[in-house]
## 1
Amino acid sequence: MNQFQLYGITDERFHPGRDIVEVMEQAILGGVSIVQLRDKWSAPDELLHKARRLRELTRKHEVLFIVNDHVELALEVDADGVHLGQDDLSLAEARKQMKSKLIGISTHRIEEAIAAQREGADYIGVGPVYATQTKSDVVAPVGLSYVSEVAAEIDIPAVAIGGIKLHNVADVLQAGARRICAVTEIVGSPQVRQTCEAFIHAIRNQAVAPGASGRQG
Ligand SMILES: Cc1ncc(COP(=O)(O)OP(=O)(O)O)c(N)n1
Ligand SMILES: Cc1nc(C(=O)O)sc1CCOP(=O)(O)O
Ligand SMILES: [Mg+2]
């Protein structure tokens, strides 16, 4: 999992009339190498159906599949892992059930990042870097300084998230991010594949700020 650069999260509210699998396939073709199913609205049977379809898609393209919030669903569809926030099931509890599968933890300050790393998270989310339209119950933007702190102090993979667009991704990379996650900029794009290709291009051509090169290769 160390190699991923672009992480895509589903949100069907931003692509009405386009199928979730079709949108995420374009994202994968553009360079997304982790897909997360994040759906707070579907009934359990619908969610299971979407999870099964995305599992099939991600297997076909040999990319990772993560389920947001739901450990049992992740296990049921044999996802590669689960993503949990600070108010979700604890990492220790999730680890008992997920065994060696991946567990990602959202963090909003360095103490949370250090704790997640110490407790065995496989990766952390770092954000919200900027204001986001996608999630209302989220802390205030943490800004680029938190991205730089994580780059300097944390060894496990860290993915910057929250309000990241093609027009500001260079700043996030310059602050030390090496992995980027975006929701609306990807799934809401009329050209999902090209948008992802542009993110990948930015990441591969990142400018490293003096002192912000971080510890994550
Ligand atoms: C990669 C990534 N980072 C952060 C989050 C947010 O998780 P959480 O804080 O649990 O909030 P919800 O997504 O559940 O609303 C994420 N899903 N993925
Ligand atoms: C799901 C989520 N978690 C966040 C966090 O900071 O933990 S920000 C976020 C939404 C990101 O969506 P967009 O790329 O559209 O701003
Ligand atoms: Mg959550």
## 2
Amino acid sequence: MGTNVLTSSSYKFYTNGEWKESLSGETIDIKSPYLSEVIGKVQAITNEEVDEAICSAQEAQKLWAEISIQQRASYLYKWADELVSRQNEIAEIIMKEVGKSYKDAKSEVTRTADFIRYTIEEALHMHGESMRGESFPGGSKSKIAIIERVPLGVVLAISPFNYPVNLAAAKIAPALIAGNAVIFKPATQGAISGTKMIEALHETALPKGLVSLVTGKGSVIGDYLVEHKGINMISFTGGTHTGVRLAQKASMVPLVLELGGKDPGIVCEDADLKEAAKQIISGAFSYSGQRCTAIKRVLVNEKVADELVGLLKGEVEKLSVGSPEDGSTIVPLIDNKSADFVQILIADALGQGAEVVIGNKREHNLIHPTLLDYVTGEMRVAWEEPFGPVLPIIRVLSDEEAIKLANESEYGLQASIFTKDVNRAFTIANKIEAGSVQINGRTERGPDHFPFIGIKGSGMGVQGIRKSIESMTREKVTVLNIAE
Ligand SMILES: NC(=O)C1=CN([C@@H]2O[C@H](COP(=O)(O)OP(=O)(O)OC[C@H]3O[C@@H](n4cnc5c(N)ncnc54)[C@H](OP(=O)(O)O)[C@@H]3O)[C@@H](O)[C@H]2O)C=CC1
Ligand SMILES: O=C(O)[C@H](O)COP(=O)(O)O
């Protein structure tokens, strides 16, 4: 850390194997969330440039699907190696661009390299199947179906700001190994990190046109990309509002959507409260709560609520607050608008009788970790995703009430249950409407080969290495009729 890694004030977009400036002549300023300065500009590309990218992707994909998976793997292994060798530079850019601590940014890069390698290995070990007609009444033994997975074509990968490298590569790697081409649209705040990741991919001498980096505001080029007839599959991670809009615009293409969340941490009266408090605070406040999987509300049994609140407060007091350059856990939010939104949720709750346990302090877009007690269902913070460091505590009288409140949410990403009674944990888990339920642990996406699922307003389809590969391929059946 320390040297200035942002060497170019204006970053180019990437298509057909070349780095280009947009003919629009327009760029977008990328302002660091904590440095109060513009750290670079990215191209605002035109619809015609999107067309060119998709056209070259279609061409390149045909040949890419023809070569062997071992050949495709060799490019991706090189990509993983390149990322590792550039980890310090990329981590520093992630830190500056999205305000994530250097340590977390670095582990995002190494996690990405691990992800790519595991994706290759998984794909190498995925095989088709065959079946004979004789199993069905009247069917014949001489009819054999060979069922293989084939690529879908051109995958549109749209990623959010909070994991600008990892969540993008988590789409690009499975798409490529399965034989697809990729149009990658990074979050604008995150596009420089995305550019660096694609520079590493470019170093592998990947065939021209196979991957394009298209930069520009989602509100400007998003619909054009999503509705484009040359796109055969969309993998999107981002907010629920954007995802729902996208689903309405996209027609007749498979979609995987990983969206927002309001993960509850349910604490039963028999829980190990000390451990629960640790897990909840780490789950809620890492990277200032800017994680889809952050614990975003605590539903605690009234009998142990006072004790838990004391323990939670103690854990919050240990959190470091400040600059990502100092390795702080609580860092300035991505922009002022996001901080304003968190502030509105806090003010609404306080106006309706919630009590501040700790926090509710703000310096520009840095919001100190805030615990709110006595939150009720009337308050917005009980239901809305803050994407910031505020954790509401709702006191409940029973497991049934906790389950009811958990399920009344529009979201269904994950939930955590804290109890020493495994039967009780399963009884609750079975009733929770969420993609995943964690028992005695914080909500989180990893390890990355686990299926990662959002239901209701939290998404559609499944990610996770094998599931991502499956989502970017389809089954194809070839039937052999042997002469008898
Ligand atoms: N379930 C999951 O796996 C995850 C979910 N998330 C969710 O993402 C949100 C935070 O990320 P954030 O980046 O702010 O999310 P946004 O929804 O604002 O943006 C996500 C991506 O969508 C793009 N986009 C914006 N408008 C359109 C459009 N009309 N058509 C197509 N694409 C568009 C954005 O581009 P641009 O930046 O240019 O606007 C960005 O690349 C939170 O709600 C969080 O919960 C985050 C991570 C993981
Ligand atoms: O954006 C997010 O929040 C991630 O998908 C969650 O990943 P994590 O649980 O590994 O932080």
